Amino acid sequence: MLKLKEEFLRLLDEDREFRYAVMGRLGFTELLERFARLEERQAALEERQAALEERQQRLEEHFARLEEKFARLEERQQRLEEHFARLEERQQRLEERVARVEEELRENRRVLTVISHRFGILTEVGFREAMKYVVEEVLGAAKVEKWSYRDEEGFVYGAASDVEVDLVVRDKAHILMEVKSRVSAGDVSELYRIGELYRRVTGVKPRLLILGGFIDFKARGVAERLGVEVRPISRDLLAI
After folding, report:
1. Count of domains in the chain?
2. Is 83:147 a contact under the CB 8 Å cutoff?
C-alpha cells in the first residue's frame, strides 16, 4: 500500500498526462479551463491597460507641447502689447507735438495779422475778417450777428449817430464784442457805453468782450474798472 502511494505521488509529479487525468477525475479540469479563460481575459485587460497608458502618455506629451506653444504665444502677445503701448505713447507724443506746432502757427498767424494791420498792409475790415477764427476759438461755434441802433440822444458818441456792434447770444447770455488790432482806454469806454445803451434798449445786461492785438496798459485798468473783459489775440503780443 505504501509503495502504491509512493508510485501515485511520483506519477503526479513526473507524468503530466497522468496528473491531468487525475485532476479531471477529481473535477479540476473545469476549474483549470476557467482559470485559463481568466488568465486570457486578464492578459487582454493588461494589453488594453498598456494601450490606454500609452495613449495617455501621448496625450500628456501633446498637452505638454500645447502648453509650451501657449506659453510662447502668451510671451509673443505680451511683446506685441508692449510694442503697441510704445507705439501709442509715441503717437500721443506726436499728436501733442503736432498740436503745439498748430498752436504756434495760429499764434504766428495772429501776430502777422496784427502787425500787418498796424503797418497799414491790412485794413480794419480785413483785420476783423482775418480774426473770425479767433472769435470761434473764444466763443465756440456761436453765431456772430450785428446789432445796430440809431442813438438819437447821443449817449455813446455825444451826438446822434448809428451804433453798430457784434452780438453773440449763447446759452441765454448776450455778448457784445469788438475785435481791435490795438486796444486803447477809449475803445474800452466806447464798448462800455454801447453796453449801457444795449441794456436800456433791450432790458438785458450784456457781457462785454474785446479781443485785441496790442493792448494799452491804461486800457487794462479801465477795463477792470468798468467790467469789460479784454483778451489778447495772441499770447506772444506784449501789452504796451
Report:
1. 2
2. no
Q: What is the pLDDT of residues 151-190, one digit of tens each?
A: 999 999 999 999 998 888 877 889 898 888 788 999 999 9
Going by their DSSP bridges, the two strands 161-170 and 207-215 should be labelled as unpaired
Q: Are 82 and 138 found together in one domain?
A: no
Pairing of strands 229-232, 207-215: parallel
DSSP letter at 238 equals P
Residue 158 near residue 190, CB atoms below 8 Å:
no
Q: Please tell me the distance from the alpha carbon of residue 196 to that of residue 189, in angstroms, as a whole number.
A: 11
**CATH code: domain of residue 163:** 3.40.1350.10
How do strand 173-183 and strand 161-170 relate by DSSP bridges? antiparallel
Phi, psi values for residue 104, rounded to 5° = -65, -40
pTM comes to 0.49
Question: Distance (Å, rounded) from C-alpha 64 to C-alpha 68?
Answer: 6
Residue of 201, 205, 125 lying closest to 173 (CA atoms): 205
Rounded CA-CA distance 70/190 in Å is 76
Cell of 82: 508692449
Query: Are 117 and 46 members of one domain?
Result: yes
Pair (137, 221) in one structural domain:
yes
Same domain, 133 and 117: no
Adjacency order of strands within the sheet including 229-232: 144-151, 161-170, 173-183, 207-215, 229-232
Task: Tell whether 117 and 181 lie within a shared domain.
Answer: no
